[in-house]
Design a protein that fits this description.
Blueprint: H1 21-33, H2 35-46, H3 50-76
The structure holds zinc ion (ZN).
Zinc ion (ZN) binds at residues 4, 6-7, 10, 19-20, 22-23.
């Protein structure tokens, strides 16, 4: 049927369509937020440089350790 015009990976939904199911859903969500807002969301939330990634990982590990400690406290109290 041909590859999706957006991701260039999955098969298109049908012969007359240009996108796969996933990219069609992305297109529909983009219609709700607008393309400029979607691009802003992707750039500010999804794209991170190496330092931002390490900070995020450290934060998640710290949070995970805190939760584990809290769980232990609950068990022993
Ligand atoms: Zn696609």
């Amino acid at each position: 049927m041909g590859k999706c015009y957006f991701c260039d990976d999955a098969e298109r939904m049908n012969w007359t369509g240009y996108f796969c199911n996933t990219c069609d859903e992305i297109k529909n969500i983009t219609k709700v937020y607008g393309k400029e807002r979607m691009l802003d969301i992707l750039q500010t939330i999804c794209l991170r440089d190496q330092e931002q990634l390490e900070n995020k990982i450290k934060g998640l590990k710290k949070k995970s350790n805190t939760i584990s400690k809290d769980d232990q406290d609950v068990k022993y109290n």
